[in-house]
Amino acid sequence: MPEAAPPPPPLLAAASSPAAAPLQRARRRQQQQHRRGWRRPRGLLAWGALVAFFFVMNWWMFSRLQDPAARSHFRLRRHPLRADAAARNRSSLSTLEEVAGAAKGKGPHRVMLTRLLALAAHALAEAETRPEPNDLWEEPINATMWRPCSDQRDWEASEGTNGYIMISANGGINQQRVAICNAVTISRMLNATLVIPKFFYSNVWLDKSQFGDIYQKDYFINYLKSDIRIVKDLPVELQSLDLEVIGSLVNDTDVMKEAKPSLYVKKILPILLRNRVVHFIGFGNRLSFDPIPSDLQRLRCRCNFHALRFVPKIQEMGALLVERLHGHRSHLLPLKDNLLGQFAVKSAPRANKSDASKYLAVHLRFEIDMVAYSLCYFGGGKDEEDELEAYRQIHFPVLTELKKTIKLPSAAFLRSEGKCPLAPEEAVLMLAAIGFKHSTNIYIAGAEIYGGRHRMAAISHLYPALVTKETLLSPSELEPFRNFSSQLAALDFIACAAADAFAMTDPGSQFSSLVQGYRMYYGGGNLPTIRPNKRRLASILVKNGTIEWQEFQTRRLLCDGSGSGT
After folding, report:
1. Rounded mean pLDDT, 102-124
2. Where are the alpha helices (DSSP H) in 327-379?
3. Among the listed residues 287, 160, 296, the one whose alpha carbon sits nearest the alpha carbon of residue 234
4. CA 199 to CA 280: how far, in whole Å?
5. At 504, is the secondary structure helix, strand, or coil?
6. Residue 426 has pLDDT above 70, yes or no
7. How far apart are CA 309 and CA 468, in angstroms?
8. How do 230-231 and 277-282 pair as beta strands?
9. Cβ atoms of residues 565 and 133 within 8 Å
10. Is residue 283 left, alpha or beta, with left meaning phi > 0 and alpha meaning psi from -120 to 50?
11. Which one, of 261, 305, 277, 284, lies nearest residue 150 by Cα?
């Protein structure tokens, strides 16, 4: 007997009845929604696959930057110390995502910065086989018109009979250098004898160096003897005077910044004539540049460009630094003679010039003191804000108190006005945009960068041929300079002044300004200095969320009169 057919499924059985039509339509809608629900995950999967594809392409392009076979030449391999440094840089990060991650943070500025870093990596990979811009290593035409003239004198030596001027300069080597030359100028102006300057010990710089530890005393005295009288110590009969009691101590609150010469004649000269000695305490930027008689301005330049020569210890190590950077290439003799003295001959041209190389020096003024003092924000969130505020309370208490009494400009406003120092990840965008190739030899000047290795990730990977004095010189060579920040800064000064091109990241930095002046004075129009237009760069990073790399390159990122022709 055949088996009975199985009963129809309940839905099918119900469908045979007209009364079941509403139930059938409801079931059909449920099935359609179920199918649409599966389409969404499939769409997301497709989108994810597309994103993954672009990420893999990004990774591949960046790996091309790291592959020596993809580059035609890598000059720094010739120097073991520099090659080791480049190898360390290459091994610290492995993907483009990690490089861009160095710029992560909140706000449109950080988002745009991350995007441009990725675009810069692509551009550098593609441009490695192309020639550099013709004017990349050249000064603009107007810079070649300058001619040195401060060594010319048209007056008799001052006898210094009105008394003695002493200064105790504060700050680092750059502030001290400015203070020294201002003191020389004021001594001539007041017909006073200058006592070799003293340097304050600073809780920021932590350096006990005095004048004779950095500069040659006898050379300084002899070179300026046709201008002013200089002695090493105050006469014995004046050393016992209580200068504070007799009113001969003059601090920075008594003399305004950029004071005119007339103030010194009216206010300081009477004290000098009455007490025979005046002691300036601090003395930071206390003499104007304009208006000032041209012969006094020439004297100030003569002090800076001629009279202040580094001691042999610094000259010798500076010569070694330049030799390892330039690879025995000949250099401009006036500059080398001033910076390196008798040790300049060690860097003379040799028969085999195959290891000669160009290098770009970059002053990254991004140490914690500058970052804290700037009152700017650099994407580190509350941890950064708390850390910098704690640093300000210890090292800049006056600024901390000022914040309590008046409303200071916001971090966003300071950035929009170009008042913030460039972070390393911002500086690298400028270098890439104006045409420096991935294989460019770069010397980084400065102390410990705020944020350390993470902050340096982008620049050290987009430009792996990157060195510092710490990687070029051995520990034993650096040992005599340990714990002397001003002497270490002097080595940076030599390396930057002698570079084929020099890029500053904070045009307000006295170090960068002094280096730029040296290069203009001795360079003969052949030593370009690159000055970023920080206001324009900030505007691009905040307001141009979709800008492409080619357009970014066409923007004028440098100040007028800056090198590299951009």
Report:
1. 77
2. 333-340, 368-374
3. 160
4. 11
5. strand
6. yes
7. 23
8. unpaired
9. yes
10. left
11. 305
Residue 207 class from Cβ within 10 Å (0-12 exposed, 13-18 middle, 19+ buried)?
buried
pLDDT digits (tens, 9 = 90+) for 177-220: 999 999 999 999 999 999 999 999 887 778 999 999 999 999 99
Rounded to the nearest integer, the mean pLDDT of the chain is: 82
d(CA 529, CA 137): 9
Q: Which CATH class is domain 103-132+317-366+421-554?
A: alpha beta
3-state SS assignment for residue 164: strand
Mean pLDDT, residues 125-134 taken together: 88
pLDDT for the residue numbered 490: 97
**Number of residues in the chain:** 566
Measure the CA–CA gap between 412 and 419, rounded to whole angstroms.
10
DSSP H helical ranges for 148-255: 173-189, 211-214, 217-223, 236-239
The reported pTM is 0.81
DSSP state of 215: B
Q: How many angstroms separate the CA atoms of 486 and 209, rounded? A: 7
**Peptide bond just before 291 cis, omega within 30 deg:** yes
All structural domains of the chain with their residue ranges: 103-132+317-366+421-554, 164-307
The helix/strand/coil state of 530 is: strand
Which residues make beta-bridge pairs with 444?
362
Q: For 474-533, how does the pLDDT look when each residue is reduced to its tens digit (9 = 90+)?
A: 999 999 999 999 999 999 999 999 999 999 998 788 999 999 999 999 988 889 999 999
Q: Which residue has the tokens 């990774």?
A: 59
Looking at beta carbons, which pairs linking 52-60 to residues 24 or more positions away fall under 8 Å?
Answer: 55/97, 58/96, 58/97, 58/118, 58/121, 58/122, 59/95, 59/96, 59/97
Residue 337: exposure state from Cβ atoms within 10 A (0-12, 13-18, ≥19): middle
Average pLDDT over residues 423-430: 94
Cα–Cα distance, 71 to 85 (Å, whole number): 18
Instruction: Give 220-246 as a 3 state SS string.
Output: HHHHCCCCCCEECCCCHHHHCCCCCCC
How far lies 529's CA from each of 129, 227, 451, 505, in Å?
25, 31, 26, 11
- Determine the residue type at 48: G
Give me the helix-helix angle, 485-497 and 173-189, nearest 10°. 90
In whole angstroms, what is the distance from residue 180 CA to residue 167 CA?
8
pLDDT tens for residues 369-417?
999 999 999 989 999 999 999 999 999 999 999 999 999 999 999 999 9
Looking at per-residue pLDDT, the higher value among 78 and 161 belongs to 161
Structure-token pair, residue 537 = 């760069």
Are the CB atoms for 494 and 322 separated by under 8 Å?
yes
